[in-house]
Design a protein that fits this description.
- The chain is of the alpha/beta class.
- The chain has a single domain (6-197), classed as P-loop containing nucleotide triphosphate hydrolases (Rossmann fold), CATH 3.40.50.
- The protein is 33% helix and 21% strand.
- The chain has 5 helices and 7 strands.
- The protein has a 7-stranded mixed β-sheet, sandwiched between helices.
- The two termini are 16 Å apart.
- Magnesium ion is lined by residues 35-36, 57-58, 76.
- Magnesium ion binds next to helix 1.
- Keywords: Cell cycle, Cell division, GTP-binding, Magnesium, Metal-binding, Nucleotide-binding, Septation.
- Its cofactor is Mg(2+).
- This is Probable GTP-binding protein EngB.
């Protein structure tokens, strides 16, 4: 994972995606859950993906290419479930997300991010249902673990694991992360290195 990560492509719609090549790993989740921050923490590049305190920052599918040259890409996605965005934007992001997750043969894994303070919501279930219909492997990542007490984190784990029972296609194991402290990054990097090697 060490090395030169760079931005290669941004796509506001499903018609303008980059050619399918190599392997892709995408990060999905509600607005503000910490998708872009996680990409920065993983790659060790502070400002590779644009982040913001306010939801709705990432508005396109953003592709980053790794040190493995053209063979491995990370995909930052717009967030879903941001109720205050204009209705037309919500509709276009939602269809972009669902279409991409279902119809991309280079997509090797999707990490679905869940804020450890908020747990699994209805809009997350919608995305998990879409992933169940696609052949892609997916796993839940709890984010912002630095913001909750150990007891709250334990409760969140129990609740999310219960919500996952409806989704046997998901990895049963959750990854617990914090982009602020770096917790969980070695595990996530190792999982992706394993994926590249398969
Ligand atoms: P959208 O692109 O708007 O969907 O958001 P996003 O999911 O990409 O979230 P982003 O990475 O922009 O982070 C949103 C806010 O959460 C920012 O203020 C981040 O600094 C903060 N944040 C992200 N990860 C963490 C974390 O692990 N711990 C803490 N404390 N804050 C975090
Ligand atoms: Mg973002």
């Amino acid at each position: 994972f060490a090395g030169d990560w760079q931005f290669i492509w941004a796509s506001p719609s499903i018609e303008t995606l980059p050619p399918m090549q190599g392997l892709e790993v995408a990060f999905a989740g509600r607005s503000n859950v910490g998708k872009s921050s996680l990409i920065n923490a993983l790659t060790g590049r502070n400002a590779l993906a644009r982040t913001s305190h306010t939801p709705g920052r990432t508005q396109e599918l953003i592709f980053f290419e790794g040190p493995e040259a053209a063979n491995f890409r990370l995909v930052d996605m717009p967030g879903y479930g941001y109720a205050s965005a204009p209705k037309a934007k919500i509709a276009s992001w939602t269809s972009l997300i669902h279409n991409f997750l279902q119809g991309r043969s280079t997509l090797a894994r999707v990490y679905v991010l869940i804020d450890a303070r908020h747990g699994l919501k209805e809009v997350d279930q919608d995305v998990l249902n879409t992933l169940d219909k696609s052949a892609v492997s997916y796993q839940i990542v709890l984010t912002k673990a630095d913001q909750v007490k150990p007891a709250e984190l334990a409760q969140c784990r129990i609740d999310v694991e219960a919500g996952l029972r409806k989704h046997p296609a998901a990895y049963p194991e959750l990854l617990v992360t914090s982009s602020r402290t770096g917790a969980g990054m070695p595990e996530l990097r190792a999982a992706m290195i394993k994926l590249i090697g398969e």
